[in-house]
Design a protein that fits this description.
The protein folds into two domains: about 5-115, no CATH class; about 120-210. Helix content is about 45%, strand content about 30%. It contains four helices and eight strands; from the N terminus they run ααβααβββββββ.
Length: about 210
């Protein structure tokens, strides 16, 4: 099993149980004081992620999203108030967590398939105009599918900061492209074409694919 599988399993199955266990162990005053800065941290992270900025690598962001769900579980289980809006939030949150718990049981098998779509199986490094880039390849396919989908996510890396900016996502199906898309010697580069930039894929059989970056 891969790391993403266990993150999904712990999130949907483990966190609700942890919340119930901590119900009588955590001091609500301490939890309440930490809740606002914690939510603010997650909010900033989510906004940056929506604009393509993330911490370097996949797992750090996966773990942050997982911990965000843990805070949701703890908030719904631990905090009690007479505020009508929070009561509505608790009802919606309880329903969502309960559904997530059911999904977690199904996910003991289902997550084996889903998680492979979030696991990098090959990383390509290259540079253009002194800027460093990294492309991570993800593949999704199994015996009952007629093709394998390869997703290439390209990020610009920043030299002194553990931050990356997603600049492109490109999908290929192995039976719908002339590229030898599953090979390790696939060449990926960023090229300048006037005022625009293109990402270029070149396989050892001589076939190419190019795409203009936004």
């Amino acid at each position: 099993m891969n790391v993403t599988y266990y993150i999904l399993l712990v999130s949907f199955l483990g966190y609700p149980i942890i919340g119930i266990i901590l119900l009588n162990l955590i001091k609500l005053d301490n939890f309440s004081k930490l809740l606002v800065p914690t939510i603010l941290f997650f909010l900033i992270h989510n906004i940056l992620f929506a604009f393509g900025y993330s911490l370097k690598g996949d797992y750090v962001d996966y773990i942050i999203f997982s911990l965000e769900y843990l805070v949701l579980c703890l908030t719904v289980i631990l905090l009690k108030t007479t505020n009508i809006y929070f009561k509505i939030f608790r009802v919606i949150g309880t329903i969502a967590i309960s559904l997530g718990f059911v999904i977690g049981f199904i996910g003991i098998i289902m997550f084996i398939v889903i998680s492979q779509d979030f696991e990098t199986d090959k990383i390509f490094h290259f540079e253009n105009n002194s800027k460093s880039y990294e492309t991570r390849r993800y593949s999704f396919g199994f015996a009952t599918l007629e093709n394998t989908r390869y997703t290439f996510k390209t990020y610009r890396n920043y030299k002194y900061f553990p931050i990356e900016k997603e600049i492109d996502t490109t999908d290929f199906f192995d039976n719908k492209t002339d590229l030898q898309i599953d090979e390790d010697k696939l060449k990926i580069s960023i090229v300048n074409t006037g005022t625009k930039q293109q990402i270029l894929f070149i396989s050892t059989n001589g076939h190419t694919f190019s795409k203009t970056l936004n």
